[in-house]
Amino acid sequence: MTTPVVQLQSVTREFSGTAAVRDLDLTVERGKFTALLGPSGCGKTTTLRMIAGYLEPTSGAILLDGKDATRLPPERRNIGMVFQSYALFPHLTVEKNVAFGLRMRKLPAAEIRTRVGEVLELVGLAHLAKRKPKQLSGGQQQRVALARAVAVRPSVLLLDEPLSNLDARLRIQMRQELLRVQRETGLTAVLVTHDQEEALELADSMVILDRGRIVQQGPPREVFRAPATRFVADFLGYENFLDLPGKGPVTIRPEHVRVLGPDEDPPADAEVVEGTVASARFRGTDFAVTVTVGDRTVHAVSTDDTLVSGAPVRLCLPAAQAIALPHDDAAPDTTASEPLQQQELHT
């Protein structure tokens, strides 16, 4: 069994007596892409900075390649880091920016030239080697920052929300670029992001934090399909929280809630609730439908272009798509014994 590249053992970090990270245990496997995600203030960036050595834990241990690195300074950790702000030297050319870390490590000039050439080819920027950062687009600058981090052949590549400054289209392109580089090099990577789509697309392992603690981790598909708590479900876009008779508190994604036609019969295992359309927003291929049920709101997805505000509708809630939540994690004032038809819905 191979030694994990990064291990955090009961790590806590406090600022002025307040814990930003609490008793955290985390293992990052070799060659894998791990994503740390959660809302602002959840502790993900603090965790990344402790792995990098920019912050020391208040308690606990950090192991790199099986060795205690808790007090090691950043320059002795063999870490590559890509920042949100790129952090390129504006007066240096692309190739000199990429070579910077290699020169700091006092590698022979011939090896520096070879490595710089290799990583610029890897990120598709060999033809721009003599340009300076101001002559590059945002995406190109981010690729330079990635090349600089990869050139030192780090034990682990740390990515601190590296795509957040790019526009939506470029973010998608750069996700694919990041994944390609990671797969081709076999690098171990840890990504900090608040973007669930980014984590789902890139990560082999997804770690969700809340208030300094890990609340769920695992392969992205498993975490997405089976959120363990209401917090995780809400963070991953499960907008509907309700009680189903015999099931207790559950969550159902909007795309699994169907708007039934006037004469359509629901499946035998589904619950049906009646309500009124509050809005139907066109999204290109379908409509995001908001339905008022009593004093509650349910979100659904439909391709019916005749839905208008105020129209009566029936919603089909398939039991197979209802994910059970812990009773103590559900919305307050639920009453599992009351049928859904009596509008015991929780948003």
From TrEMBL:
Residues annotated as domain ABC transporter: 6-236
Cross-referenced SMART domains: AAA (SM00382)
Domain of life (superkingdom): Bacteria
Record carries keyword RNA-binding: no
Keyword Transport in annotation: yes
Any one Gene Ontology molecular-function term assigned to this protein's record: ATP binding
Keywords: ATP-binding, Nucleotide-binding, Transport
Protein name: ABC transporter ATP-binding protein
